[in-house]
Design goal:
Elements (H helix, E strand, L loop, with lengths): L8 H14 L13 E6 L2 E7 L8 H11 L8 E4 L13 H8 L3 E4 L11 H7 L3 E4 L3 H7 L1 H9 L3 E9 L3 E4 L10 H13 L2 E5 H7 L15 E5 L17 E5 L11 E5 L9 H10 L4 E4 L3 H9 L5 E7 L7 E3 L16 E9 L2 E8 L5
Parallel strand pairs: 3-4, 4-5, 6-12, 6-13, 8-9, 8-12, 9-10, 10-11
Antiparallel strand pairs: 1-2, 1-3, 7-14, 13-16, 15-16
């Protein structure tokens, strides 16, 4: 939505700080949004806070507590927050109540809350006589919570498909060898994207060929994402690393291997052909609170997800080398496309150099574009 007022350079500076605070919860807040807050009085910061993880106080409450710990009175102050304060009771009380009770005079929120259960905080604050302004740095706030917005507005996660490839788009040799096409910096960067995701998804083919752990190892994190395997016949070996220690979900057409153990959840979602219903899987993951789904799979599953319109963006690491044919590509479309017009159209979002490699973030364009 467009900003509801003209904001000053100082407003922008304080919201920039709030966004930086929210970033501290990038790997920990799921299924909640990443939110930062700064309280300002007479041009000085009185208190700061961010949401750390679900079940703990929200950013506004933490900022109010920080101000109190510093001995500051926030009555008449301005509160900058990256997401509209919530107005419902969940695992914590409504933030609007705390803001009203503190005597804050003005609230500037980057974006309205897309969650219907928590929205209308601005209305509640205005009813209490507080000036509320929305829309300052909204694009930045939405990017920070792209998965939360996707899940709460459409009922399924934001799906990010990751692949490492040569410049000619090859992800592995014909015999399956793929370690390592890209360099250590790119691999560490890929782990950073794993860390921010709620879940990591792969297919049975990748499990068979590579036996991946699908854990975050190259960067620090206090939380490991859920590991998901699409395996319609239930053929994942009980000793597969992806199942080690639990925190794993196998999505099948109804099959279950009793040797998987109690730490492995099984979700049966057959479609009319006996395969896994991928669209239903995404809806179920959304219902389970998965905001961002990170896909590291082979060409078959990648192609199926793209063909079904279930991918939002591609995270591609391109190495300065050429592998040539025959070799595996990023995505397969069965017999191939009959018309160039049927290709998956992308919009380049960003291009960065990571070590010796390139990182391209490209978003799938809608059919209407």
């Amino acid at each position: 939505m467009p900003p509801t007022t003209a904001f000053t350079a100082a407003d922008r500076a304080f919201m920039t700080r709030a966004l930086a605070l929210a970033e501290r919860g990038l790997r920990s807040t799921t299924p909640n949004p990443r939110v930062g807050c700064v309280i300002v009085g007479d041009g000085a910061v009185l208190g700061e806070g961010w949401h750390e993880r679900a079940g703990l106080p929200h950013a506004e409450v933490n900022a109010l507590a920080d101000a109190a710990a510093r001995g500051h009175d926030v009555r008449g102050a301005t509160l900058y927050v990256t997401l509209e304060p919530c107005s419902h009771t969940g695992r914590t009380p409504p933030c609007t109540d705390a803001v009203i009770a503190a005597g804050v005079k003005r609230v500037v929120a980057a974006m309205a809350d897309p969650n219907p259960a928590a929205a209308q905080g601005a209305s509640r604050l205005r009813a209490a006589g507080i000036d509320v302004e929305l829309g300052l740095m909204e694009d930045e706030a939405r990017e920070q919570n792209i998965g939360f917005v996707a899940r709460t507005t459409r009922g399924r996660p934001w799906v990010r498909m990751k692949a490492a490839a040569s410049l000619d788009g090859r992800t592995a040799l014909a015999n399956g060898e793929s370690r390592w096409i890209t360099g250590p910096e790119a691999r560490a960067d890929g782990h950073a994207f794993r860390a921010r995701a709620c879940a990591i998804l792969t297919g049975i083919g990748t499990v068979r060929h590579d036996d991946p752990q699908l854990t975050v190892r190259a960067v620090e994190t206090a939380r490991q994402p859920l590991r998901i395997v699409v395996d319609r016949r239930g053929e994942t070996p009980p000793g597969a690393q992806v199942l080690a220690g639990g925190n794993a979900l196998v999505v099948t057409n109804g099959a279950r291997n009793p040797a998987w153990g109690h730490g492995v959840d099984v979700l049966a979602l057959p479609d009319a052909t006996g395969r896994v219903d991928l669209a239903a899987m995404m809806r179920e993951l959304g219902a389970r609170g998965v905001n961002e789904l990170h896909v590291e799979a082979g060409a078959g599953l990648n192609g199926a997800l793209l063909a079904a319109g279930l991918v939002d963006e591609l995270l591609l690491y391109l190495a300065p080398c050429v592998i040539g044919d025959p070799a595996r590509g990023v995505a397969g479309f069965g017999e191939g496309l009959a018309r160039l017009a049927d290709r998956v159209a992308l919009a380049i979002h960003s291009v960065e150099r990571i070590g010796a490699d390139l990182r391209i973030l490209a978003r799938v364009k809608s059919k209407e574009n």
